[in-house]
């Protein structure tokens, strides 16, 4: 089994979107309500929610009754959208220091060739990973009723109790 290290921001972004997707259409949730339900730091959750807003996945309404809502059509939100919203679109090896690998080779020509191989391997893996994320939608993990409709959950009531 292959294990991939994903950030907690990515997992929390998925959780935020699932919660918002389950809300009745006219409802929204405040970041404090979401962070309370998820049992995570409110300030950290706000940073993630801001990234989701900048990626046009959610919208925020600033008012007493405001909060966050899904903005993009649920059937169009891919896991790649979520990943890039919180992790960015930088290559996997962006800002990775390959110097330790370089130190294993004396000849500069060998260093260059071996670096190219390392970069090529990771670039191919990254492409495959992102292509796979692009083929899966958030709706695949949303709970549905027996008719196939996304369950609507009154999160405000659940959070208050």
What does this protein look like?
This protein is mostly helical and 161 residues long. The chain has one domain (8-155): Arc Repressor Mutant, subunit A (Orthogonal Bundle). The protein has helices at 8-21, 31-38, 42-54, 79-87, 99-102, 108-134, 155-160; strands spanning 58-61, 67-70. A two-stranded antiparallel ribbon has the order 1-2. Helix 2 (31-38) crosses helix 3 (42-54). The model has no long low-confidence stretch (mean pLDDT 89).
Subunit organisation of the chains = single chain
CATH class: Mainly Alpha
How does the helix and strand content classify structurally? mainly alpha
Strands, total number: 2
* CATH fold-level assignment: Arc Repressor Mutant, subunit A
InterPro entries: Tscrpt_reg_Rrf2, WH-like_DNA-bd_sf, WH_DNA-bd_sf
Protein name: Rrf2 family protein
GO molecular function, one term: DNA-binding transcription factor activity
Organism: Enterococcus phoeniculicola ATCC BAA-412
């Amino acid at each position: 089994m292959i294990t991939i290290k994903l950030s907690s921001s990515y997992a929390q972004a998925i959780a935020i979107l699932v919660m918002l997707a389950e809300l009745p259409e006219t409802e929204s949730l405040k970041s404090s309500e979401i962070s309370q339900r998820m049992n995570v730091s409110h300030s950290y959750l706000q940073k993630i929610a801001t990234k989701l807003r900048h990626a046009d996945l959610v919208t925020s309404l600033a008012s007493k009754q405001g909060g966050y809502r899904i903005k993009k059509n649920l059937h169009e939100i891919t896991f790649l959208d979520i990943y890039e919203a919180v992790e960015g679109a930088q290559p996997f090896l962006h800002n990775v220091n390959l110097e330790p690998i370089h130190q294993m080779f004396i000849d500069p020509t060998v260093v260059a060739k071996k670096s190219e191989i390392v970069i090529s391997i990771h670039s191919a893996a990254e492409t495959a990973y992102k292509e796979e994320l692009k083929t899966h939608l958030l709706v695949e993990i949303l709970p549905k009723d027996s008719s196939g409709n996304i369950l609507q959950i009154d999160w405000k009531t659940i959070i208050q109790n």
